[in-house]
Amino acid sequence: MRTTIKACRLAMLTALVNGSLALALMLLVEFAISGSFRLAEPYVWAGLLIGLVIFSAQFYRQLRLCRCSEVREKVSHP
Questions:
Q1: Buried b (16+ CB within 10 A) or exposed e, 33-55
Q2: Spatial CA neighbour of 27 closest among 46, 12, 9
Q3: Can you tell me the distance from the alpha carbon of 20 to that of 43, in angstroms, rounded to the nearest whole number?
Q4: Residue 3: CA count within 13 A, CB half-sphere
Q5: What sign does the CA torsion over 35, 37, 38, 43 have?
Q6: What would the pLDDT profile of 2-30 be if each residue is shown by its tens digit?
Q7: pTM of the predicted model as reported, rounded to 2 decimal places
């Protein structure tokens, strides 16, 4: 349970950072094209979708890394 929470926390942090950066990049491109910072609804949905995809991928990656780390600690400290 503890490894799942740790993996979820790390995956959520990564997803929030990457989703926010994607949204900021979309707003920057919108400003470059139109000259105004208009937060359109598709940008928000795209940012959320990017965050969700990154979260799901990172969650399984972090879960595997945490479990491998736990096994290594148990083997090295009998």
A1: eeeeeeeeeebeeebeebbeebb
A2: 46
A3: 11
A4: 12
A5: positive
A6: 778 887 888 888 888 988 898 889 888 88
A7: 0.73
